[in-house]
Design brief:
Elements: H1 2-5, H2 9-56, H3 60-117, H4 126-145, E1 147-149, E2 162-168, E3 177-183, E4 186-188, E5 191-194, E6 196-201
Parallel strand pairs: 2-6
Antiparallel strand pairs: 1-4, 3-6, 4-5
Helix pairs in contact: 3-4
Length: 202
């Protein structure tokens, strides 16, 4: 306080001006710092936004893995379909081949049946007995292959199974009933190899 008494008015005024300049400078620096902080905020937001966008975008490696996985799944499905189709075609080819062979064997079976039908007592005739044994071997082999005889006499006429070569008026038999069979029909695993040749009552 003693020092202030010795300061002249001019010096006091100069000191006040210096203090005001210091205060103004401090205020300007505070304002500039605030403005810089505000200016930096959008950049930070941009950086955050770009960071999340990078996260959202799939990695090229993941995209490649997904593409290869999808391609492998489709190829496996195509191969499975091809395998099933090939197996079906193979089974159909086998069935067609088997039906052709059976169709060629059936006339031999018919000949055996006609020959044995002419013999009254095949058991007493050694030759007829031998023919009968061979005939039974044929029919057993056909049965094991899945060949079955189509039932005809006494059954209702079925154009899918029977071939009507004659018609007869027979009230006792009933309408559309097979009354006589001229040639046996055969099926192979549910498929007709040869239709039965029959006489049908009207």
């Amino acid at each position: 306080m003693a020092e202030n008494k010795n300061i002249s008015p001019e010096e006091m005024e100069e000191e006040i001006l210096e203090n005001e300049e210091i205060n103004d400078t401090a205020e300007e620096e505070t304002v500039e710092e605030a403005e810089e902080a505000v200016a930096e905020e959008p950049e930070t937001e941009k950086e955050k936004g770009s960071f999340f966008k990078k996260k959202e975008k799939k990695d090229k490696k993941d995209e490649k893995i997904e593409e290869l996985t999808d391609r492998l799944t489709r190829q496996m499905a195509e191969f499975d379909n091809f395998r099933k189709r090939t197996e079906k075609e193979k089974a159909n080819m086998y069935a067609i081949g088997a039906k052709d062979i059976i169709e060629k064997i059936l006339p031999v079976v018919d000949s055996f049946e006609r020959g044995l039908a002419t013999v009254e007592n095949p058991e007493e005739d050694p030759f007829a007995d031998g023919m009968n044994k061979v005939y039974k071997q044929f029919t057993t082999a056909l049965d094991e292959l899945g060949v079955t005889v189509i039932e005809a006499v006494g059954k209702e006429f079925d154009p899918n199974l029977h071939n009507a070569v004659m018609h007869v008026e027979d009230e006792e038999a009933g309408e559309n009933i097979v009354v006589e069979e001229f040639l046996k029909g055969y099926m192979y695993k549910g498929s007709v190899v040869r239709h039965s040749m029959v006489k049908v009552a009207n």
